[in-house]
Amino acid sequence: MQPIVDTKTMRNSDAETIRRGTSGRELMRRAGEGIFHSYAWHGPVAIVAGSGNNAGDGYVLAALLQRARIPCTLVLLSDLFSEDGAYYYGKCKEIGVKTEYFTEKTDFSSYAEIVDCIFGTGVHGRVEGIAHTAIEAINQSGKTVISADINSGLDGDNGLSELCVKSDLTVAIGFYKYGHFLGQAKDVIKNLACIDIGIGLFGSAVMLAEAADMASVLPPRRQDSHKGMYGYVSILGGCTEYAGAVKLANLSCAALRAGCGVAKLIVPASIASGVAPYLLESTLAPLPDENGHLLFDPDALDAALKGQRALAVGMGWGRSAQNAAILGHLLTNHSVPLVIDADGLNTLAEMDKKLLKETKCKIILTPHLKEMERLSGCPIAEIRRDPVGIAQAFAKEYGVCLLLKGSCTVVTDGEETYLVNRGCAGMATAGSGDVLSGILAGLLGYADPTPLTVACGAYIAGRAGELAQERLNPVSMIASDTVAQIGAAISELA
């Protein structure tokens, strides 16, 4: 599990490390050396440098390449230097590193690798002027591109950009930043590494959820065990318009593949006969309905949920005046871990959310950006600019565990926060969110409803999607392809 920081924490950590006795010049030397050892250089190498400390890392790298007899050229965008950068630029001049200034006529065709040292994490907003031209030239070069710390032009706090360098490798310095994972990061960073240069962590951090972190959620199973030990879980959803028999079956199958003992589908009685043929290992509980939508029948609902260890609600629920009464009853009268997704979130957005503060249920909310907008009242653009902060604030205010979906998933209860950097473009298809809800329900049959458990569910779903895409392609994937790879994803973790 590795820490991920915002740019403010990174600046504070850097400054405090210097204050405690490690000079900025020494940190710059270590950064350049770390980049040098992070890649098997062939050369010739063009190091495109701006004017700040990010450029200084490039000067250290240039000197090391020169001493290793790997041809390199410093391509400068400015004749301004930071104090430490000027020192190492001077060293480059002393040993004869070739230097030139970038112009619109600069040609990168003779280089094997281009190193991006234009900007660090301080860039927020549109890149203009000579830097804009240089970034476009790098992206159009067709060469191997290595970015120092973060891709120039990419916002270090949210991974957003109108224009940034697209890298084959980005070498994060000190700590990973939010911008290495969020927003557009996966589209512009092919490979990512992080080097430790001795900067201490001074400030808050979120954690990168990795395979090794899931062992506590998925412990070895005893031979002397039975299905009851792994939990009875229920999935409540469906309506006439969204009967989705196969999709509902996928949900229950996902729960079982995630390890629960028994999965039960609770659906409107009028669609039960359509769903039943697709269920092999799951059980079915039809509830009273009207015109294909569940009716609020508290006795029937309580009976269906008797003995259940977890419940996922809202998938394929549709819109009905009865849904708020059903969800309100669950929040008021039950105490099981409760995953609320899809139309369940839309229902919740129209209710008094103080119920979340008063319920005895452990609540897991799984919104995508539009659902988060409805829940929080924050516009999507604002959420994209600060997904971690907004998710943390909402989770803390309402006492829930929030799983904010995206190219990188944010999981937080307001105190403990994980980024789950799993998933792929092929999962942008109907039913992927339902599969995630099924996996979460399955895990909650036997695992504590902690942020780590929820992060584990997101990890399994994302990794299963990646495995499915490897076998197919991002265009042809459907949600059931992800379900088929849940077992393989869990095998990797085990």
Describe the structure in your own words.
The protein has helices at about 5-20, 25-35, 55-65, 85-95, 130-140, 185-190, 245-255, 270-275, 300-305, 320-335, 345-350, 355-360, 370-375, 380-385, 385-400, 430-445, 450-470, 480-485, 485-494; strands at about 1-5, 45-50, 70-75, 100, 115, 145-150, 170-175, 175, 190-195, 205-210, 230-235, 260-270, 285, 290, 295, 310-315, 340, 365, 400-405, 410, 415-420. By secondary structure, the protein is an alpha/beta fold. The protein has 2 domains: about 1-200, 3-Layer(aba) Sandwich (Rossmann fold); about 210-494, 3-Layer(aba) Sandwich (UDP-N-acetylmuramoyl-L-alanine:D-glutamate ligase), CATH 3.40.1190. α8 links the parallel β12 (about 260-270) and β13 (about 285). α7 runs parallel beside α16. About 55% of the residues are buried.
